[in-house]
Amino acid sequence: MIRRFRPYFSYLRPQRGLLIAAILCGILAGLASGAGLPYMVKKVFPVIFAPQALPLSAWELALITLWIPAVFVVRGVATYLNTYFIQLVGTRVLEAIRLDFFRKLQILPLSFFQKNSTGDLLSRGLADANQLQVTLTTVANEIVKSPASLLGSIGFVAYTAYTEQGVALVLVTLAVVPLSVLPIRYVGKKLIKRAGQIQAELGGVTDIFSENLSATKEVRAFNLEARETARFSRASQTLIRAQMKFMKYEKALTPLIEIISAVGIAFTLLYAYKVHLAQDTFITLITALYASYEPIKKLGSLNNEMKRGLGSLDRLEAVLQAPVAIIDGPAAQPLPVARGELTFDRVSFAYTDGESVLKNVSLHLPAGTVCALVGPSGAGKSTFANLVPRFFDPVAGRVLLDGHDLRAIRLADLRRNIAVVSQDLVLFNDTIFNNLLIARPEATLADVETAARAAFAHDFIRSFPDGYATIVGERGARLSGGQKQRLALARAFLRNAPILILDEATSALDSESEAAIQLALKKLVVGKTVLIIAHRFSTIRDATKILVFDQGEIVAAGTHAELHANQPLYRSLYDRQQGT
Ligand SMILES: Nc1ncnc2c1ncn2[C@@H]1O[C@H](COP(=O)(O)OP(=O)(O)O)[C@@H](O)[C@H]1O
Ligand SMILES: [Mg+2]
């Protein structure tokens, strides 16, 4: 089982100095309690309680009685340093695990996030990473310490028993120690299944939490307060039940081991009676025997801890080892500035196996084509456009830019050549200025203002008391839909990339602002290869080429005049909107 954790012990490597210090302190603490106390019973008691004892000098008496506090000082300080160092190692390890997890989330394909929910991923990155950290540090701390103090105290028992009475006493006192393995194994087996279940249920609870927080408006608009609370409470109860089941077995371990140890003591007592063992020898033996059950209990809970860790490890690895489908190939070529010639070569695409969303689409767009995509909703227009920045890769066929397969172009270069304005845009909870700047980090304030003016955003930005320094709120919550769209367009202006994708980019604007932005867009599109998806036909009439999508296929292509004359689907879509 410990083999499963082996790759992750590498997280401990940079902390090995601290870890070794922690383990040494742990061993010292173990020695102090494992051997120090029985030794005290053996050496101190006889002197104090011996009936024939000579009167002790004050000096001797002090030395003897101070043995007890001395043992406890050593034990206390060593235990403190051990836990402190281990915690320190733990926090650093946790940071490293969490960072790796987060880094991985940045490069996973979008499809991954459609299969995994936000809350569950949050829970994996926080709770499971935390659990793995606890497991790794506990294992690292105990894996040497507990066996060492177990061997120490058993050695002491064996030695004392042997010198006092011979092999027979050794066998009697230690006979039941191996029996402790039974409850450890039994409990461990019960826990393995349940540990993963707890973490999954925790993910479920986090999920409802995060979903609820992202739907605050809907909850109020549809009176969902009670329903949501009930849903949360149900998930919460399930989690608690899973935790209780885990605890039921986990907490049984210590009492079981203690019962076994009591049986061991009873046997020793019986034997002591038969062989007339001296009282002080017996007490020494019992203390040492009892001390040796401490590390056994530790090893047992270590076993439990590993089961817990395995559950989390599985959940972390589902992310850490998820394939990164969209990544630079070994032969990825740089592409500083694209001309913008796009070719779709028999492209098919499906989000889920078997349900094709794009069917064998071929198309050539010379650089500088302004191309509009129309068709009923669900026809595949957005999907088609999303293949260009490689948000998804085609299932079959290929997409080419300037004659290069997109998969042969460095991903960062490809995306630098594309500006995307989509309908569901997200702003970061930062200033307006910084939100615009991400489109071109090296831009000056003047560049940003020019872009904002072009997108008719400058005036409303200036009307805020803080102007460009206004914080937009989470996802841009403090702005209206139309304002957000103008900022998105301003980003596109600022980016000034040779390829421009506008997916319902003006849908949230009122018709007056849209008319103004149409003018701006006319300037923006000049010389660029443009894919424009718009629900208003006024936007697309001037396109050099219009593609009509239906059920994942391009059913017609041409200019507005040609299509309106010859294409029934186009004509019906167009006429319905014109109200004729
Ligand atoms: N992330 C997704 N996962 C699964 N199916 C999707 C996803 N996005 C879109 N679809 C499906 O793919 C089809 C095309 O969607 P889309 O390209 O968004 O259409 P359009 O933009 O033309 O309205 C629809 O049937 C839609 O249900
Ligand atoms: Mg769409």
Offer a quick outline of the entry:
By secondary structure, this protein is α/β, with parallel strands linked by helices.
* Mean of pLDDT: 88
Largest sheet: 6 strands, mixed
The portion of residues forming beta strands comes to 5-15%
Measured on Cα atoms, how large is the radius of gyration?
A: 36 Å
Distinct bound molecules: adenosine-5'-diphosphate, magnesium ion
Task: Describe the model.
The chain is 63% helix and 10% strand. With 580 residues, it is an alpha/beta fold. The chain has two domains: 2-320, ABC transporter transmembrane region fold (Up-down Bundle), CATH 1.20.1560; 342-417 and 497-578, P-loop containing nucleotide triphosphate hydrolases (Rossmann fold, 3-Layer(aba) Sandwich). The strands form two sheets. A six-stranded mixed β-sheet has the order 6-7-8-3-9-10. Strand 7, helix 18 and strand 8 form a beta-alpha-beta unit. The radius of gyration is 36 Å and the shape is elongated. The relative contact order is 0.08. The site of adenosine-5'-diphosphate (ADP) has 11 residues, from helix 12. Magnesium ion (MG) is lined by residues 381-382, 503.
